[in-house]
């Protein structure tokens, strides 16, 4: 357990000690929140859907957690390049503990970033429908972070260098975000698009946060929790298996 704690603490300290990373991690969420939230607000309101800022805020929080957790897993590539991964793997610690420590560390950092963005959303004008249920949103934030931190570890364990990073970004992470319903309602979509969005794990995370924060849901909060828990468990197993196959 000490190895898991140390690796978790390393990820946390690396994030909190880097002020540049702390500020930069908030740039993209603020862009989506302020530009889209206020820019598309009048259009969304004229369509009879209420405040777009209210609608998009949970999606922006989900986006923040998605990017942070996946990139923390891809940090394996940096550790491989600079030799830290080799030193970790030759230590008298099981690879499963190393993988769990890294995954939990990345997930914790992603949750912290999500909470910071949640505060920014509140300052920008976002208001939960029921404040008593607002803490339940953290449950969905944790589930999203674990799912995509495990995915990041699985991908980072499979890549050999940084050349595949941009491909992962363009053909996996961005589609996951844009197809999650973070920016548009999932109701009334065509059959093909509805099927694709239902296969996107982030769809259930964003939908779950909207359920507890805005009392709006497409799949149902219980379904959201079940799907995220199942997908997270599967990706943790895959991530552990891929990490056990790493060769330095």
From TrEMBL:
Residues 20-246 form the ABC transmembrane type-2 domain. The chain crosses the membrane at residues 20-40, 52-78, 99-126, 132-155, 167-186, 219-241. It comes from Acidicapsa dinghuensis. PANTHER family: NODULATION PROTEIN J. Keywords: Cell membrane, Membrane, Transmembrane, Transmembrane helix, Transport. InterPro entries: ABC2_TM (IPR013525), ABC2_TM_bact-type (IPR047817), ABC_2_transport (IPR000412), Nod_factor_ABC_transporter (IPR051784). Pfam families: ABC2_membrane. The keyword Transmembrane helix applies. It is found in: Cell membrane; Membrane. Belongs to the ABC-2 integral membrane protein family. It is a multi-pass membrane protein. This is Transport permease protein. The keyword Ubl conjugation does not apply.
């Amino acid at each position: 357990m000490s190895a898991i704690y140390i690796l978790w603490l390393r990820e946390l300290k690396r994030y909190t000690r880097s002020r540049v990373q702390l500020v930069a991690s908030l740039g993209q969420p603020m862009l989506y929140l302020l530009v889209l939230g206020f820019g598309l607000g009048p259009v969304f309101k004229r369509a009879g859907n209420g405040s777009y800022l209210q609608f998009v805020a949970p999606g922006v929080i989900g986006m923040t957690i998605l990017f942070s957790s996946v990139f923390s897993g891809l940090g394996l590539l940096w550790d491989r390049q600079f030799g830290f991964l080799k030193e970790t793997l030759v230590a008298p610690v099981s690879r499963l503990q190393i993988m769990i420590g890294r995954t939990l560390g990345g997930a914790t950092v992603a949750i912290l970033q999500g909470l910071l963005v949640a505060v920014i959303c509140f300052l920008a004008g976002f208001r939960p429908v029921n404040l008593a249920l607002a803490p339940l949103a953290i449950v969905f934030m944790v589930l999203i972070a674990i799912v995509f931190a495990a995915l990041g570890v699985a991908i980072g364990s499979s890549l050999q260098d940084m050349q595949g990073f941009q491909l992962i970004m363009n053909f996996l992470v961005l589609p996951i975000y844009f197809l999650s319903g973070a920016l548009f309602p999932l109701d009334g979509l065509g059959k093909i698009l509805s099927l694709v969005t239902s296969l996107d794990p982030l769809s259930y995370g964003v939908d779950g946060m909207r359920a507890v924060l805005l009392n709006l849901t497409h799949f149902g909060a219980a379904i959201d929790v079940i799907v995220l828990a199942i997908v997270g468990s599967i990706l943790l197993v895959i991530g552990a298996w891929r990490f056990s196959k790493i060769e330095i």
